[in-house]
Amino acid sequence: MTAGSKLLNALSAVALSSTILAASTLAVSFGTVGSAQAAVVNRVEVRGTSRVDAETVRNLSQISPGQNVTAADMDKVVTRLFATGLFSDVRVSQSGGTLIVQVDENQIVNEVIFQGNKKVKNEQLEAVVQTTPRAAYNASTAQADVDAIRAVYSRVGRSDANVSVRTIQAEGNRVNVVFDVAEGDRTRIAQINFVGNNAFGDSRLKEVIALRQTGLLGFMQRSDIYDEDRLRADEETLRRFYYNRGFADFRIVSSVAELDEAKNEYYLTITIEEGERYSFGAVNIDSTVPGIDAASLQNELDTKTGATYSAEKVEDTLVNLTNAVAAQGYAFAQVTPRGDRDFSNNTIAVEYVIDQGPRAYIERIEVRGNNKTRDYVIRREFDVSEGDAFNQVLIQRARQRLEALRFFQTVNVSTAPGSEPDRVIVVVQVVEQSTGEFSIGGGYTTGGENPGPVAEISITERNFLGRGQFVRVSAGFGEDARNYTLSFTEPYFLGRRLAAGFDIYRVENSSSDYDIERTGGTLRLAAPITENLTAQIAYNYKEERFGDDYGVPVPGPGGSVAYRTCGDFISATPASFIGQYSPMYTNSPIINQAICDSPYSTSSASYSLTYNTLDNNNDPRDGLFLQAGQEIAGLGGDAQFVRTTGKGSFFSLLNEEYDVIGLLGGSAGNVTAFGGDLRVFDNFFKGQDIVRGFKYQGIGPRQNGVSIGGENFFNATAEVTFPLPLVSRDLGFRGAAFADVGSLWGSEYDDQPGVEGTGFDIRASAGVGLVWASPFGPIRVNYAYPIAKEDFDRTQEFSFGFSSRF
């Protein structure tokens, strides 16, 4: 063997030895890693706990002695312990057969403090934050609370509010959590624009939605605050507005709110596609259920051929048909509308198909989100209950009723599968809103019993104690008048849809020819007969005092005047002398005698029927309001009469685009005594309340110029209201043009000296008005020129006061 061969063999041996050593080392290394990844744990050692028991940590780790633990298992331990929210840091390691769990406990929240909040109360913020006293402090939760507080401020129009959180150490490993709030200015809506609207102008659509542009009276408004939830609700309102006016293809393309951070104002742009306007084509009913006669259901149709298409009319027809077939014993019958568009004629033919629906029952009704409102207040709006046949139409009608209560910002009704295939769970999700109102109003009125400056303070709660009850307390103050009222209404008396309530009032007035003090109350009960027709019965009691306690002035010796009590002196003293020396008495012996006979008490029962199809009770544009009733006095007390009254108003939108509203209205009444003579103060006293252009008590029978009222009255009115040109509708002003006609006549005192005007004499006037939808209620200014009048009437061409449309 050569030297070279020997050297080569030596190198090969060294290389082989190295390979063997490396392989053995690698094997040892792999064995070590594998052992670390799956080592047997003999015990779990917990370190760093003070409040949390170590055994609790061991249980939460889910690691038991004798278990093989890998790196993945240790990661899971860390995840589990962090998820409890009890620890700010968790470290897991292994030493031999011991698994070491090292934790740093979260501090306990000692107190949650809000600083800098003036516009939002602490209670409102406490309701939205998750950080609470005596709970473990968690930084992530606190940061989420910061976002929740910002959201609250955004909803009240302060989108630029700045919120931060910090902690202050307290004793015993506790911490005070402080939320610092810089509220900033209110973020208002500077402008609302509509794109794509042709049938209706921007001004009309702005009246439809609830959001408003900031106007001159923005400091008194709350509707000019941008809120995304309110915008979504307004989108739905726009859809209904168009769907109910024939635009079945209407859709909202986009709604964009842009914030100008420099001005802190929003610019809102709503882009829409109106589509074509449709009318109803042929309207039919098709029943596939044996025993249901489609022809007998024709009277239930609210949709008529040739009328403008309306989704609301279709919904009303669905409810009518559903109730009608259910009343015939077909609880599972399902009514479905099928529309067929005729694009050439712009009509939609509607066929209501009655099928036998699936036999599904309501397992339960779950109510969620109601913190204040009691469950039963929500449940009673459903015409179905647990165990009844499920009917989607009646479920949706209940949703509409809940929305109409105005207790909730949003109402969502959905369904979920029940415990059995034929069982359905109805889920009602609500978001509550404020139902209390505190208002202070003021103004000046030139009509009614209380002319002059007026002010009113009232507190109203529509959902008293979450029971759905209505409570209102008010106090009114005028220059020479006071009035106080307490009203309460329970809308579901004895668990039925009966509205029971009472009213208590006190009136003090010294602004007319004589003082009036009136105290009384009413107990009432109202029941719906149909969706639009309501009946009411009531018991009424009042005590009235007229005049003062000075008595009648009578001439004394040397030209002196002696005041004596009422009685025979009334007839013995000249009326002119009474009127001259005692402002509390009048030039009318009839009125003076009635004053002397007071106080009076009236105990009566009354009933009325009200038919109401108005689209909006506060601001009607379409519909009919009719009311008629009688009051029968004589159930004790001093009065004995039958008073019959009736009134009606018909509203029609004369022009959709320019929002021109027409009104035709009228009223009439008669009072008749039984068992004796009619007291003069039981007469009707009328004036500008039936014919504008005349004073209060300005028309009708008089004695020596003093109103003694009449036994009969009637009036009719025609009016058109319209937006003012060149004036933003956001200010709430509208113009009006009107004409009134009426009369007050009839008196059993027509043979008395100085009595005139007891015959049927027509009064008429025409004029213009300005209506302002102020934050204190509708205020109206009228100028009316009397066209037909009598010489003894008292006119007043200009009037100013609070307004009522019907």
UniProtKB/TrEMBL annotation:
Ranges of residues in domain POTRA: 39-106, 107-184, 187-275, 360-433
Database matches in Gene3D superfamilies: membrane protein fhac (3.10.20.310), membrane protein fhac: a member of the omp85/tpsb transporter family (2.40.160.50)
Repeat among keywords: yes
Record's subcellular location: Cell outer membrane; Membrane
GO CC terms in record: cell outer membrane
Domain of life of the source: Bacteria
An individual GO BP term: Gram-negative-bacterium-type cell outer membrane assembly
Keywords: Cell outer membrane, Membrane, Repeat, Signal, Transmembrane, Transmembrane beta strand
Signal peptide: 1-22
Pfam family, one: POTRA
Function: Part of the outer membrane protein assembly complex, which is involved in assembly and insertion of beta-barrel proteins into the outer membrane.
Subunit (UniProt): Part of the Bam complex.
Family per similarity comment: Belongs to the BamA family.
Full protein name: Outer membrane protein assembly factor BamA
Gene source species: Aureimonas fodinaquatilis
